[in-house]
Amino acid sequence: MKTFQKLIADGLKTVPEVFPWDLQELMEAESSLLLLDIREPYEFDTLHIKGSMNVPRGILESACDYGYDETVPELAKTRDKDIIVICRSGNRSVLAAQTMQLMGYQSAKSLKTGVKGWNEYELLRGY
């Protein structure tokens, strides 16, 4: 049996992580970067990174593929695009990015520390 933490550790074998300060640099340098927040809508509505797209983890697979009610065309057509997957603390995003890799996404990464870490980073920078 695998625990949640073991699943995350296994996912980190293939999923790169990006720290908040590295994400800030990527956002400034890459106009084609896709920020994908996989938290529930109520979490997203409370606090999110400007410019991020909300696709809850529960519908991620069907949102990433054509032919479903949940299909998000902007997401389904970006298998070769740099994608940063975001959650609250950086755990669910690892599992979601791993799933996206299995579905053919070539550059799915996880935001280490999630929105929580991003918010703390912004507070430190004086935003």
Quick structural overview:
This protein has helices spanning 4-11, 20-29, 41-46, 60-63, 73-76, 92-102, 114-125; strands at residues 17-18, 34-37, 53-54, 82-86, 107-111. With 127 residues, it is α/β, with parallel strands linked by helices. Strands 1-5-4-2-3 form a five-stranded parallel sheet.
Can you describe this structure?
This protein is of the alpha/beta class and 127 residues long. Helices cover 43% and strands 14% of the residues. It contains 7 helices and 5 strands. It has helices spanning 4-11, 20-29, 41-46, 60-63, 73-76, 92-102, 114-125, and strands at 17-18, 34-37, 53-54, 82-86, 107-111.
SSE class: alpha/beta
Count of spatially separate domains:
1
Based on CA atoms alone, the radius of gyration comes out at 14 Å
The count of strands amounts to 5
The rough form would be described as globular
Query: What's the CATH topology name?
Result: Oxidized Rhodanese, domain 1
What helical percentage do the residues reach? 40-55%
Mean pLDDT: 93
CATH-wise, what's the superfamily?
Answer: Rhodanese-like domain
Beta strand %: 5-15%
| CATH architecture heading | 3-Layer(aba) Sandwich
Low-confidence stretches: none
Order of helices and strands: HEHEHEHHEHEH
How far apart lie the N and C ends?
Answer: 43 Å
User: Count of helical segments?
Assistant: 7
Q: Which CATH class is shown?
A: Alpha Beta
Order of strands, widest sheet: 1-5-4-2-3
Largest sheet: 5 strands, parallel
Please name the defining characteristics of this protein:
globular, Oxidized Rhodanese, domain 1, five-stranded parallel beta sheet, 5 strands, alpha/beta, 127 residues
